[in-house]
Amino acid sequence: MSEKSVTTEEAAEQTAMKRVTDGITLGRVGLYATLIGLVGFYLLPIESGLVTSIKTPTGLDNTFPFLPPLDAGWITFEKWQVAFDYLAPGMVNSMLFTIPSTILCAILGSMAAYGLTLVDWRGQIAVLALFIAGIFVPYQAVIVPLFQFWSQYMQLGARLSFLWGLPLLEPHYATILELIITHTAYGIPIVTLLFRSQYKTMSNEMIEAARLDGASVWRVYRRIVLPLSIPMFAVVFIFQFTQIWNEFLFSLTIIGSTNDPAASATLILSGLGQSLEGTDYPLRMAGAFITALPTLLVYVLFADKFAEGVQT
Amino acid sequence: MAETQLDDVRKVFTETDGNEIVAVNDVSIDIEDGEFLVLVGPSGCGKSTTLRMIAGLETISDGDIRLDDRVINDVPAKDRDIAMVFQSYALYPHMTVRENMAFGLEESTDLSDDEIAARVEETAEMMGIDPLLDRKPEELSGGQQQRVALGRAIVREPAVFLMDEPLSNLDAKLRAQMRTELQQLQEQLETTTVYVTHDQTEAMTMGDRIAILNDGELQQVGTPLECYHEPANVFVADFIGEPAMNFFDVTRRDADGDGAVLVNETLEYTVSADISTAIGDRDDLVLGVRPEDISIERSEGDQRRADGHTVPASVTVVEPTGDENIVYLDLGADRSERIIATIDGMSQVEAGDRVVVHVPEDAVHVFDGETNEALHNRRVESNEPRVPNV
């Protein structure tokens, strides 16, 4: 009796083992090894940056860049404080132009896409072609004209000088305004295309039903199309916010100097920790993380809607 | 509520390569106040385009559309006081049923919020959708969505209802039920309705009058029974009625007296003086007879009756539908022609049977073979015409 039960237990154990080993094939092992390798590959620079940002000069000299500071005395958060102090005005400036131009891009792009997709009029395709062409205009091609346009022809600072006496307004807001307009104009084509791809899938009969229900072109947009494109707005918010926040060339062209009161976060970051004595790596790393934080925050805020929008 | 007139309405689409396609060709229909008119025809016949022109969703190339004697060609869709029910229902997915129904009233009238809410509730109750008022369209079944789409049109109390195949996405049973309900609703509301369908059963059962379109041309406008018993041409005769009318290409041969004989390789059909007169001296003819007018008699051998209205045949297929049998027969010795007959469900006919087919003369239609126009239509003797078999 007992012998028999032992053999059945053994058999059960063997089949269980077999089941486990059955699942593991060479292909699966390879797949997971590759995946883990890729995770390491992508995370290593971030991890190196993070550990570097909290090292003292001694710590920096005595450890590999990707290793954490091994001695408690080598750890300091001072650089984060310094970087934050340097970057804070830039972060405010960046917010001041990124948020308005992101919102403007989304609203104007969605309206343009509506007009080009769901409203019927002659010459639509020609106008659409202009928008598409706008996507492919390289930044380098517009830098010189852009600089001349703002500094010679528009001169917003001088023209709006009557405003700067008002409370809460400062002369360097003219530069911020220039950046808002530039980023909005540059972002509209791609945003229009994104919205258009969604609007093309919208039921034509639904739009027609709304028109027959007595809604004007504007009311159809306001009450039908706009509420239905909220997920796409999330996609555009994340996409445009990241683009404009990280943008450097326009900042360099329009703002010019790191010392300008309108200097953006990216512009200040470019000079952070650079001096004649050498590069302050911990400071640069801390600065980079601080500058990247808002884009992460935006992604977290809109992640749900973003997933919905990407599906459409 | 309004009288609607289409006067030589024409729609031409221009393709990108400059080709012009006439979708609707000089269609004229007077739709009376409170009438239920069904536009019917095969797909691509221009019926939906006609409807969309009435709605204002499609421009009119030529002709006039009048609503109570006012030309509305250039009135934008939103100002036409017309409600439409679409095939896809076209509900607004982000709004509840209540908001869907209120939308039209909010956009097109100056009613206060309370009045709008009251009208929505009232209509929803009438349509039996009041328990659904706070749901979104995606939470409704197809049939419920269909009802909401209908309710959304009704709540506006428009001058004209337009319906573009509103029942075609429902299953057969629900469709039959909604057909009856729609008819009752329309009678109750007395609103002029134009209903587009490709389904001749819907056309026959629902319309006060039906307008049959083919290739953008209006073929005939009339009551369902007129179109059934007195088709204007071969197309109408073929389109209306299920199973379709049987047609035979024949030529005329003079017979004794005033009559004539219509002949082809298989058939020899004697007609009397009045049909012969209607035919005149035309030679290229089409003889038509509805399946339900044909009777089948058992026979031993190939016997023909002396009246010249019978032909021997053999049964190839019998499709029983319960109340009747649809019988497919091959005619003549060489079996070159096929004829379909519907006979009583209780009669015993089986595939392979040799029979004699009898086609009564008062049930035949004769058409001109070149123009396809009707020359002679069947006589309807009784005051109460037989109910068409649809």
Automatic annotation (TrEMBL), chain A:
Pfam families: BPD_transp_1 (PF00528). CDD domains: TM_PBP2. GO terms for cellular component: plasma membrane. It is found in: Cell membrane; Membrane. InterPro entries: MetI-like, MetI-like_sf. Keywords: Membrane, Transmembrane, Transmembrane helix, Transport. It is a multi-pass membrane protein. The chain crosses the membrane at residues 26-44, 95-116, 128-151, 171-195, 224-242, 281-302. GO terms for biological process: transmembrane transport. Belongs to the binding-protein-dependent transport system permease family. This is Sugar ABC transporter permease. It comes from Natrinema versiforme JCM 10478.
Automatic annotation (TrEMBL), chain B:
The keyword NADP does not apply. It is found in: Cell membrane. One of its GO terms (molecular function) is ATP hydrolysis activity. Its main location: membrane. Pfam families: ABC_tran, TOBE_2. Residues 4-240 form the ABC transporter domain. It catalyses: D-xylose(out) + ATP + H2O = D-xylose(in) + ADP + phosphate + H(+); L-arabinose(out) + ATP + H2O = L-arabinose(in) + ADP + phosphate + H(+). GO terms for cellular component: ATP-binding cassette (ABC) transporter complex, substrate-binding subunit-containing. Its EC number is 7.5.2.13. Keywords: ATP-binding, Nucleotide-binding, Transport. Part of the ABC transporter complex XacGHIJK involved in the uptake of xylose and arabinose. Responsible for energy coupling to the transport system. This is ABC-type D-xylose/L-arabinose transporter.
